[in-house]
Design brief:
Length: 491
Amino acid sequence: MSLTILFDDSRRVPDDVLSMTGVVCFGGLIHGRRTLLRHLQEAAQEAGLSPPVVLTTRAALDEAAERAGAAPASAQFLLFPANLAAPSPRGHLTRMLKSLAQAGGNHAWPVRTAADWTGLVLVEQRLAEGALGALAQGRLREFVTRRRKDFAAPERAELGLIDLRDPAQFVGFLANNFDARHFNSISDGPDYTLVKRSRDRAKLRREFEYYGLLPAQQRIYFVQPFDFQDDGETASYRMERLLIADMGIQWVHGVMTPAEFGLFLDRMFSYVAQRPTRPVARPQGRAVMDRLYRDKVVERVALLKSLPAYRDLAPLLSRAVGGIDALAERYLAAYEASRDRFAADQLVVGHGDLCFSNILYSKTTQLLRFIDPRGVESADALYTDPYYDLAKLSHSILGGYDFINSGQYDVALDADLGLTLANNAGDRDWAQGLFRDRLAPAGFDPRLVRLCEASLFISMAPLHIDVPKKILGFALTAQSILDEIERPPAA
């Protein structure tokens, strides 16, 4: 008996999914550093099965039906709609495929039983042609019902799959799209809420306290947390589950037009302009800068070098950027050379981690909400250097952070055996230009924004040690930024 997986990616995604991600078919949706199709292909390989046959058109479905009709009588076919996904790690999908390969007979496992029925259908060769014909016509449910005597009752009604056509399930699925830090988790809560949980209990409490300490006029920008819990091992809080994709997802999928991205930037720079300010003496402002852009880099480089995985990374970092110490020294020299160019005469209430994955935005309604701010324990701690939030935005827009974080990049050898970075951003010059054009009118020196951004790519390295390849991507990006900063300004 041989099992052929037929991956039906012929159906266009619903309009709300298209609006949030820009993908036309579910198979191209990126989740956990891979497309859904790639996840299924790798799970099939791990299960010892042949690569799935991908069906993207009605003609492909008809052709598959003809081939199934001529297949050996011992053949079996698994009809796998692309709108079904496993929200748990891929190991679950692999185990499920192994189990189904041993099932034998004809089975239908519903995932959704309403009028828009969907599920997995396993058929023997004698039923395959008819099942595929019904699938092509959108009448698979009727086929299963009509031939119910040929189908065994499913041994289990729940395969652990979700229907991505459901907006709530889709947004919940995307909530874990980008790697949560290894000490964090996000899960569905009751009554349309999300639960964020962490083993770093003190950090999560600071995040929770942040909202209550915010000035009232700033709270409209943030999703309100509530129901803080601490069981002694982990801490958690809940927040409303908004059916809005974060900007990291939208950015990686290339969903925005120049006009739409311009409106998003208008909203972001409006927030930047409205941040409460606090005048400070220049020595105090410089002390805050030094903690963010100098001391943190030194501390994080030391942390990276203390980690067990660094031993294997060090030769690669040496080939990529001359070593992490050389990169850090180059950055610190650039910072010291530019330090006097910062005004350092005021602090602002800052988010503290204003990257795209922490920004929920609807391009349809222009609703903007922030999540996961840097936690604080006092109102005074809300205030930070004005450039920091802009550097976080820049590392998403100019630095390509979200492509690295979602695995949409590659580190390869060049002709001189050096390491180079390439991502899947395509042509984003127009978006980067829109961002750069807004910096100076808003009172920010573009070169200083990029300098602060370089510090982020170096200092975040040890926090992503669970995916060591990312650290090479971050180091190469920091090197590229320093190359840009050190070039003389265009005349």
